[in-house]
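Lay summary

Proteins are chains of building blocks that fold into shapes. Our project writes down both the chain and a compact code for its shape. Here are two examples, one after the other.
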Amino acid sequence: MEQSAARARIALAGIAEASRDVASALRLLSATDLLRLEALARLRARGLPSSVAWSDLLHEAIRRALDGSRPWPAGVPLLAFLAGIMRSVRSELCRRGAHEALLLRTDFPYLCGPNTDERDPERIVAASRAVAGINALFAGDEAALKVISALANGLTAREICATLGLSETEYDTTRKRMRRALLRQGLKGREPKGTES
């Protein structure tokens, strides 16, 4: 028992040291390096939903590097390491988007047209749990719930702004807040409170 506790302390010390190494390397980046990082982030953000800004990809990469969830391999330049993390985050977002589109086509055919396969009861349960989880996650955010409802009804961003009386900035801010909450929830791998079986 004491050996496993000692190993855990050593592992935590290693993570803290790696985090300090990343933080030190970030502070030493030149203006040119920072511009390269921005260019890489802009490149990775192409084709993602408009609610995902290039800066969000970069911030998420830096967060993962600093918190140790993505360890910095020895001998890999910091820019290449952060570029790899941004690529991973982009892939996660694309996979999640494709999965959500599949759920939408199979569980909500009235939103997608008449040519759909027979619905699977497990997917219906999963979708209803997901909807309950989203409602629980945004229970305190009335603007987010209204935007979610409008999106579920197939409204475009302009239609949502007009219907809800939001400016474009207010809409974008709400979408970013929603996306961050969903990313936090998904990245931690836990269900929102109130949705456990």
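And here is the second example, written the same way.
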Amino acid sequence: MHAEIARELLSAGGALPLTLSGVPYVDKPPLLYALLAAAFSVAGPSEAAARVVSALAGLLAVGVTAWLGARLGGARAGFVAGLALLGSLGFFAYARYVRPDALFVALLALGFALALSGLMDERPIRVAAGLAVFGLAALAKDPLGVLAPPLAIGVALALAGRARPIGRWLPWPGVLLAAGLGFGWWVVAEAATPGFAWYTIVDNHVLNVAQARHFPDEDVPLSAVEFATVALLGAAPWVVPAAGVVVGLARRRAWRETAEIPWIALALWATGVFGLTALSSFRLPHYGLPAYPAVALLAARGWRDLGVRWLATVHAVVLGGLALACGLAWLGDGSVFLAGVLGATDVATRKSGLAGGAVPIPPWSAFRPFVGFAALALAGGALALAVAAATRARTLAVYATVVALALLLPSAAGALSLVSAHRAVKGIAEEVRQRAAPEDVVAHEGPIENAGAFEWYSGRRPVMVDGRRSVLGFGATQPQARDSFWDDAELSRAWSGPRRVWLVTGRPPERSVVARLGGAQLVAVGGGRRLYANR
């Protein structure tokens, strides 16, 4: 979906408005799409070119986390911090998606690295650059990217009695750059799509928190327990030493010490992201990602400073427990494992369940080798950690953890590819590309983001039937989008008219508009979707 938005941006030749299937798209800021469009202008629109942006953002996040770790705790701590972030399964997964999240995390990490090191070295220009990068983070995903990080830094300084002069940590050039980058584009967006500012500020933030949105989409929030489980497991086991450092800082009231200001800021940021998201009423699996670089840095300090015996023992227990869970799943039919993992972490599965459908899941036999290998890798790591705990070998404990998690990454990548290929709209879209005549009508039932790549693969722009409860809900109110959204009556008239109509739907027949259409012929099935034609 995000690649298609960028392709349309490149075709339009302008900056705003962003569009999806020709409908104004205001759900995310434009930075990701501008970078994707730039990649497409060089290499052409392709899956590989689309994934380059997130992959490079992931590498940037790892690099700046390692750099800041080295500045704060020495070269070895920096090396461990970078490896910890790279080995966090949640971060690794989202660095493979064509989404704004990896770019958002990378810019937050870079902003913290510049701002905190600038404060340490008393380099206001570097602090200003950090604030400007926070502005870019807001331009990548959310205005909280420019507001929340300086707040965490400011609170850390205030606790140490170092908040004044304010210009030391909020130099006016940096504030102006941050505001201009983070919010300046709103003026252009409001001019291009009237009502954008109200949608962004009121509907997508204030009313979203109150669960009273005028334009809700189909996202299904996690419970607080589900979110905490997903967020913590996504950074496991690095959250253990990170939590140990946070507790240690709190016990000795380290916020009073000037040298601890960067660590207090990182601790406030990590606990704030996890805690405030858990307390909010709307939580998605990836909402914990912005805390992961801070968790990696705190974990690296934990492995440097905390007692190796108890730390290695806890890590051995964590990896051993996960190995046991994977081993039991490997021995069973996988139903509990897949329901638990995909039910909590996969947005498409949750959306489909709410809509009464069944998102296609590959057979357990396809997942089983990945789970079996994960069990072996985790068990090997647990065994090595047990030895390290017995011998108090700190280096062995750290790198046993790193290697065990590194061995999991190919399995995670394989499982992600397996799921995405199994549920892709590509097959249905190519069927339409081959069979639909130029004068035929092509329609998609339900929110277009459920098949956001349809136009990318088919080359055909669909009309949307019952598609206003969507990330395009606000865009549907714009005059230029009026003809893009049909109700059942409009589809019925076209269905019985002289033109051939193709209908793509991910809904089961009994819950689809197809049940009320006469003479619907099933043409193809694939990726959890059906393709029908009226003749």
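What can we say about the second shape? The chain has 23 helices and eight strands.
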